[in-house]
Amino acid sequence: MVETFFGFKKTPFGDNPDGKQLFASQAWNQVKARLQFLVEHRGAGLITGEVGSGKSTAARSFTAGLNPNLFKVMYLHWTSGSTLDLLRQLALELDLEPSHYRGDLARQISQAIVRLNESKKQHPLLICDEAQLLRPPALEQLPLLLNFDMDSSRYLTLLLVGQPLLRRMLSLQMHEALRQRIAVHYHLEGLSREELDAYLAQQLKAAGVTQPLFDDTARQALYQASKGILRKVNKLALTALRLAASRKAALVDETILLDATTEALL
User: Fold this and answer.
1) How far apart are CA 35 and CA 18, in angstroms?
2) Are strands 157-162 and 182-188 parallel, antiparallel or unpaired?
3) pTM for the whole thing?
4) Model confidence at 51: pLDDT above 60
5) What are the chain's domains?
C-alpha cells in the first residue's frame, strides 16, 4: 500500500541500508576517519553507541571497502561471552579446526595470525560486535591476542563495537591492559536536527520520490521521539508513511506522526 500510494520504486527506511548509500552524517565521517587511522596504524579501536545508532552498519560498511587481498576481516557477533567461545569462533574465522583446550586454541590462533601476515601478506582485522556481552575473562584474553614479539609487532587489528556499557566495563582496573592498547575511540550519537531533514530527503529520493512527505511539525515530532537514532528514525518514518497511506493523506503531519509513535512502541 505504501509503495503504490506514494509512488515509491522501493520501500524507504529499510532495516538493511545500502552500504553504498549511507548517509554522510558528521558522526559517520568521524567514525570513518578513525577506522581509517586504525587500519593504517593497527592496534585496537573502540566504537560505542546506543542501540540502533548504526555502529554495526558503520563497521561493516567501512570494512567492505578494504582490499580483501590485503586484509582478512573476521566478524564475531556474540551470543556467548565465554573465553572458550571467543577463541573457538575466532579459530573458525581463521579456517582452523579448533582444539579442545584453551591453551592449544590460543597457540593455534597466534600461529595462524603470524602465517597470514608473513606468508600471505594479509593483515587480519577482528571485529567483536556487541562486545559488552563478553565476560571479563574473555576481555582479558584480547590483549594476549594482540601481543606478538613482546608487543613489538602488530599482526592483528582489533575493533570492539558495543553499547555504552562497554566503556564502563573497560574503565575497570582488570581491563587496564586492553584499555591502554585502544588507539582510537568514538561514541556514535544520533543525527542532529538538521541532519534528520537531509536524511529523510535522501531516503525518499533513493526510493524514487523527490517531494517532501513530512511537514515541519512531523519532522520536529520525529526528531523528538527518535533523538536522531537511525533505527528509531527508520521504524517511525515508515510507520508514519503507512498510516498516512491508509488515511489517504498525501503528507505526514504531527497528528499522524504521534499516532505512529504509539504504534511503533517508541
Assistant:
1) 19
2) unpaired
3) 0.92
4) yes
5) 2-14+191-263 (1.10.8.60), 26-188 (3.40.50.300)
